[in-house]
Write a structure and sequence with these properties.
Order of helices and strands: EHEEHEEEHHHHHHHH
Distance between the termini: 86 Å
Strand content: 5-15%
Mean pLDDT: 80
Low-confidence stretches: none
Number of helices: 10
Length: 292
């Protein structure tokens, strides 16, 4: 029969998805009616549904956890999330994620989880919130210890700190490269334009307008970048595997990203070539024809 698929299983209360802002894509969320006395139910993530029921509606399908005696019914599908941290890609050996009602999460040996996370949405400051949570738990059971109280923003920030530092490093190098490219393009176009002064004068003497000259020089600047893109885009596509682990929600070959970067480079080239093109369009034809 083979090995059972390994899934990340979470036991949650009925308002978990609302508090965490995880969208319900199909079916329903858990309710108070999903108790230990009712039929077993489960909610799966969108990626899990696509993996095990491709092209089908997963609501109404059945699955069974290793500790279950009876099958559980899939009652809903929710959006995908990063289960552990934001920096690492999902573990290859995990084949999906499911959620169960907390009331139905007692394993076959009837032992409750040794630890749990309490998640609350609040408008209060984080320091007051931590004190309030501890007081609330203590009022219910003073023997239950409360660990660290942190905001989700802080947890996400710490989780992505290494990736964020690496991102800023890439941005810094990218910005420096863009600046050098703009300076280099400006220098090349300026030098090329000065070498073509006689040609420009001849063109204007033969009827070329200042607009024609402006577009001629500016077009040279843009063509330089287009030639660079013809080389750079295939090279970038070849390096997408390295970038894939730093991305979530978009692919490493996201068309919008490539179009945006390409547009930025073309705009930079146009800006770098604007000054030489403007200067060339204002050249006096008689002076240009005497240029050696």
């Amino acid at each position: 029969e083979g090995l059972a698929p390994l899934l990340c299983a979470g036991a949650i209360t009925s308002d978990y998805f609302h508090v965490m802002g995880i969208p319900l894509l199909a079916g329903r969320e858990f309710t108070d009616a999903d108790s230990e006395k009712s039929s077993g139910v489960v909610i799966v993530t969108a990626a899990t549904a696509r993996r095990f029921w491709p092209g089908e509606n997963p609501v109404g399908k059945h699955l069974r956890m290793v500790w279950d005696k009876d099958w559980r019914t899939v009652v809903g599908v929710v959006g995908d999330v990063r289960q552990f941290n934001l920096a690492d890609k999902p573990l290859d050996w995990l084949q999906g994620a499911v959620y169960m009602p907390y009331a139905q999460s007692v394993e076959s040996n009837h032992q409750l989880p040794t630890s749990m996370y309490l998640i609350a949405r609040t408008s209060a400051g984080s320091s007051n919130f931590g004190r309030d949570i501890r007081e609330l738990v203590s009022s219910v059971n003073p023997n239950v210890p409360v660990g660290e109280v942190r905001t989700l923003k802080a947890i996400a920030s710490d989780s992505a700190s290494a990736s964020r530092s690496l991102m800023w490093l890439f941005v810094s190098f990218g910005g420096a490269a863009l600046l050098l490219a703009a300076i280099g393009t400006y220098g090349v176009v300026s030098y090329s334009t000065s070498q073509r002064t006689f040609e420009i004068g001849m063109r204007m003497a033969l009827g070329a307008t200042r607009g024609n000259i402006f577009r001629l020089v500016l077009g040279q600047s843009v063509r330089l970048v287009l030639a660079g893109l013809a080389i750079g885009v295939p090279a970038a596509l070849a390096l997408t595997r390295i970038l894939a682990s730093f991305l979530y929600g978009i692919t490493a070959t996201d068309p919008a990203t490539f179009l945006a970067v390409g547009g930025l480079l073309v705009a930079t080239a146009a800006l770098a070539g604007y000054a030489p093109a403007r200067s060339a369009s204002k050249v006096d034809p008689m002076v240009a024809l005497r240029h050696e």
